[in-house]
Amino acid sequence: MQTRRAVRSVALVAAVAGLVAASGLLLAQPAGDPAQPTPQPRQGPGGPERGERGERGAARAEAAVSVERSMKTMGRALNRLAKQATDASKKVENVGLITEAQRACLAAKAGIPRGPWQEETDPAKKLAALVPYRKDMILLEQTLLAAESAILDDKLDVAKAEIEKCLKIRDEGHKRMGVEEE
Question: Structural domain tally of the chain?
C-alpha cells in the first residue's frame, strides 16, 4: 500500500515537474507573431559583425550566469532544508523549498556551466565533456524527488538523509569541476 502511494507520489511529482518545465518554455517564447521569422544577426565572410565572440558568445556567457544563479538558488534551498527537514511543523515550507530546489536543478541542468566545454563548437565533443555534469544533475533530481516523497510521507529522517545526499552530490560535483565554494 505504501509502495503504491510512493509510486503515485513520484508520478505526480514527475508530472508537475514536466508541467513546470513546459510552462517555463512557453513563458520564454518571445511575444509577437509566431509566423514572423526571428531576425538573424548579419553575417559577414568572417562571422558575426559585432564583438569578438558575437551574439552566440554573449548567449553562452549569459547561460553560464543563469546556471550559476540556479545553482545558488538550489544551494540556499538545500542548506535551509538540511537545517529544518526533521521539523514536522515546517512540512509546508519544506515542500516549497524542495520545489524551489527542483526547479533550480532543472534550470541548471538545461544550461551549460562555465568551463572549457563552453567554447567547444563540436556538439558531440561538448556533450561528451558535459556527461559527468549532466549525470550529477540527474542523480540530484532523483534524490530531490526521493526527499520530497519522504517529506510528504512524514518520513523526516529519510528526508534528512536524502537532503544530505544532495549536499554530498553537490560537493563532489563541484570538486570534480573545480568550482570553488563561496
Answer: 1
Of 134, 135, 139, 136, nearest to 172 by C-alpha is 136
DSSP state of 118: G
Q: Which amino acid is at 44?
A: G
- Looking at residue 1, what is its pLDDT? 54
Rounded to whole angstroms, how far apart are CA atoms 182 and 179?
Answer: 9
Return d(Cα 150, Cα 163) in angstroms, integer.
Answer: 10
Q: Can you tell me whether residue 47 is helix, strand or coil?
A: strand
- Residues 84-96 pLDDT 10s: 999 999 999 999 9
Domain residues for the domain of 78 are: 55-182
Q: CA Rg, the chain, in Å?
A: 19
Angle at 92 between CA 91 and CA 98, to 5 degrees: 85
CA distance 44 to 112: 27
Question: And the C-alpha cell for 96?
Answer: 516549497
Q: Which three cell numbers stand for residue 41?
A: 544577426
The pLDDT assigned to 69 comes to 93
